[in-house]
Amino acid sequence: MVGLKQRFGVDVVGNIPAGLVPPVTPNPQLFIKLVGNAFAIAVVGFAIAISLGKIFALRHGYRVDSNQELVAFGLNNLIGGIFQYFPVSCSMSWSLVQESTGGNTQVAGAVSSLFILLIILKLGELLQDLPRAVLAATIIVNLKGMLMQFSDICSLWKANRVDLLIWLVTFVATILLKLDLGLAVAVGFSLLLVVVQTQLPHYSVLGQVSDTDIYRDVAEYSDAREVPGVKVFRSSVTIYFANAELYSDTLKQRCGVDADHLISQKKKLLKKQELKLKHLQKDKLPQEQATSSRDNSLSVNVNTSLGDIKSNDVEGFKTKARPENELEEVVASGQEDVNAPDVPTLKALGLPQLDFHSLILDLGALSFVDTVCIKSLKNILGDRSGGVHCILPQSCGHPA
């Protein structure tokens, strides 16, 4: 041997154990102690593998199936655990070396695996005096392609600054923290941005582009014109509990449809109608009683028996029970011209008249619904005080 470590103090690879470890049944007592670290290692290993897989897939034009990769890693770690292997994941340096040498198929992976197996069994001792600096230089040279991803910052700044922010937060978190904590911070930050983006949606009133069937935002496209009598309102994000109130407020601002105010005014109006009906019933009841008594007194003569008088009294009671139904029929038919309650129109509610008769809510961005969204839509669609027809076109592939 050259003796670089003994003669010159060079840091070398050192002892490489040869041979395969015999299979051993895992100790169940270690499961509880290692479950937390095992979960973190599994998440980090799978994240690294999928990230590298997608990078290479974009370079070479193929698709990576995440579910298939997860099953493959699970089987490898399950079998490798019996042989006391390290957790199986993707080697960044080795993958880049293989790509740089032109290995693009599974044959290259099989040849690499056989070569590693040969080193483990027989050739490992030949690499014991290999300087670590040589390995480091090889890895750094092959990491050049990964480091070139810093050039993506400029393109992300122009394309999508939200993606750039996620990229920077992930990079800083993985550098300052451990890899598993950095990934956890990146995932949490991404979820937080999703919630924030739903709070900053783009609402628009759509108009038809001249001589086409295309509808665009009338505020952004000068050629887009609203269809007379029709309002088309669109949201760029899904509607759920966090932004349902914002959706209703923007609809009120853009289209003048204040569903909550209309519903509250209608309830007040209905209460007034009920009070008017009660007053009408009270006013009609004495008149009907007097008329009934006069009719019954005229129907009795000197030859009337006691049974006939009782019969007439029963008929009188039936007549007394009649005015309430007759009153409802009169009010419903509109014959009561003075005391009849007003029809619940916008004018009766004290609101300005709308300049459209149909409201179309474009819910193409609606990916899911919750109870708050359903209640908001019911308030908008269920109120017909303004005489406006509300339409929900089925823009998505399945009914909402």
Automatic annotation (TrEMBL):
Cellular component GO terms, alphabetical? membrane
GO terms, biological process: transmembrane transport
Sorted UniProt keywords:
Membrane, Transmembrane, Transmembrane helix
The protein's location, in the record's own words, is: Membrane
Give TM segment ranges: 30-58, 70-87, 107-127, 164-196
UniProt domain STAS: residue ranges: 220-380
Q: Membrane topology for this entry?
A: Multi-pass membrane protein
What the entry lists under Gene3D superfamilies is as follows: STAS domain (3.30.750.24)
The protein in question is named: Solute carrier family 26 member 6
From which organism does this entry originate? Sciurus carolinensis
